[in-house]
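We include the entry.

. . .
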Amino acid sequence: MNVGVSACKGRDGKWHASVRIERTEFKFIKRRFLILALRARPEVLAAKIARLGFVPYAPVRDQLRILLRVINRKRKGAGLTMIPATLLPHGRRVVRPFEVSGADLNAKAAFNASMEA
């Protein structure tokens, strides 16, 4: 899984990380899904998109919508049922890697106690 990360200025003038699927990886994914577009049922295609495993940051969600448009264009041309955008992954879990939790404090206290004994 290839993800590109860069920094860009937001509307607020501050620098923000921009995470998206790397260009060649995205082209490969599109080609693979275009092959499946006419063969698989809509729910199978939606499940495969969800299982790609990319965290749905806004630029990644945009890329997944592009993927869905390409798939649906091909399916519509063949007279097949289109995949609703509501089946795409959305929202992400906020991760705070440097936040200390209660479990971390307990583990540290237990470690310190074992070192003193």
Remarks:
- The chain has four helices and two strands.
- The chain has a mean pLDDT of 82.
- The two ends are 46 Å apart (CA to CA).
- Helices lie at 23-36, 42-50, 58-77, 102-116.
